[in-house]
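Hi, here's the filled form for the chain we discussed.

Project: internal
Contact: R.S.
Residues: 62
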Amino acid sequence: MKDQARKELLSQVENMINHYCEGCFLHQYLKKEGGRRAAHRFCISQCTVGEKLQEYGKKLTN
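And the returned structure, exactly as it came back:
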């Protein structure tokens, strides 16, 4: 992967995290009720933003 494309993907990931994940009330609630693991599991398996971040991660590793 070219450096420019990689930088663009990383920028998109950072923007998504800053826009959607920072201060996410659902994550905070799940963390409080079920613990950090439950909140993380939700973000990875059920949250649409988490799924999109996983797609970006797969592109970065290829």
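Let me know if anything looks off before we file it.
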